[in-house]
Amino acid sequence: MTRIRSLLAVAIILYTLSFAQVSAPVPVLCYHGFADDTTTIQGKLTANYSRFDEMLQFLSDHGYQTAFPEELDAEGVDIKKPVILTFDDGLKEQLRAAEMMKKRGMRGIFFIIPSRISSGRREFMTKEELTILEGLGHQIGVHGFSHRSMVESPEETEAVRSQALRVIQEAVPSQRAFPSFAYPFGHYDTSIVKLTSGIFRYLHTVSPGYWDGRSKLLPRMLITSDRPAEFFQEYIRTASSFKPVLVPITQDGAWTGVVRFRIDGAVPSGFGIIAVSADKDGYHYTSHPAADVISVEGTILSFDVQKYLRNFFQETRNVLSYAFVGKNGSSLYYISSGQSNWVKR
Q1: What's CA 15's distance to the chain center, in Å?
Q2: Considering only CA atoms, which of 214, 159, 227, 149 is closest in space to residue 184?
């Protein structure tokens, strides 16, 4: 009887720990360029400094704390409302954004393209500026090697494997570890994930959605200028209520024409799909209806990625980074985690 009680006590402890280690969904934002006036800038990835300051004020007003993935992945860390801020490409104008964050006691991860550190190109941060950045309390991450698609460029993949981390370590020797990597263009497949996971602890994508606090792949919301600030604020605000009802069965990053999900709850009527890439009309995060590209058999939902791309995207696109969403009035909420899949077209 004593032995049974002991085993029962151990089982209860393990059961409790398994739940204690499950984190609340974490919102992750991804910024690129910055400017005071973005009205004349082509493309959608340059943020306005004043709008960035409004986001920082929003986070502060609502009690959010910026964090690094390894802090949230550690036992005993208790951050009630975490958010991860990331910045891609190592652009010089990001230094001002870094200083704005420092004034508010906030930190972010700045993903640097290794081959551009000593390129002499004026738009990218130098070794000295990266040292300043790290001194402000921010973290340096690795963003490919020459910013080419690792799925489409064997040379980029080899450079990431053999050179990228070493170059960053030599550029910023004051930073002890470099756990985070961001895929150029958000491109990865299962073989690329396998390679990079052997080098880096956290792999940042641009698939929309929330991070579960444990997975190697981190979804990130790509900040674009064609969406109102409220769209991204709502994404952050609703993180705590995220409960996926469509759970992927097909592997994230897999090449396939059809992706399968397990239905694990009540699926809202009229749900849709959003993708990070600009659609045929040039808009990011447009919610397109799912009804025409899904089929349901029992508790399995099948999503025809190939048909969806054909319906809503340019013919040259053969990868989709997406999530399923429901609608609450004019607002969207997530009913699946974000992932990315490739098709042969």
Answers
A1: 30
A2: 149
What is the residue whose two structure tokens read 């209860």?
12
CA dist., res. 273 & res. 49, Å (int): 30
Structure tokens at 197: 């996971």
CB 113 within 8 A of CB 120: no
- The three-state DSSP-derived secondary structure of 233-261 is HHHHHCHHHCCCCEEECCCCCCECCEEEE
Q: Which two tokens stand for residue 344?
A: 């042969």
The answer to whether 41 and 97 are in contact (CB under 8 A) is: no
The tokens of 160 are what?
């990431």
- Give the Cα separation of 67 and 108 in Å (integer): 7
Instruction: Give the Cα separation of 22 and 9 in Å (integer).
Output: 21
Helix 94-103 to helix 49-61 angle, to the nearest 10 degrees? 30
Over the stretch 77-98, which tens digit does the pLDDT of each residue have?
Answer: 778 899 999 999 999 999 999 9
Pairing of strands 65-66, 82-88: parallel
Q: Quick check: 287 and 278 in contact, CB under 8 A?
A: no
Distance CA 33, CA 212 (A): 27
pLDDT of residue 23: 57
Sign of the Cα torsion 146, 124, 60, 134 reads positive
CA–CA separation, 178 and 134 (whole Å): 12
DSSP class per residue in 42-65: -SS-EEEHHHHHHHHHHHHHTT-E
What are the beta bridge partners of residue 57?
Answer: none
Report pLDDT for 331: 87
Cα 74 to Cα 99: distance, rounded to the nearest angstrom: 27
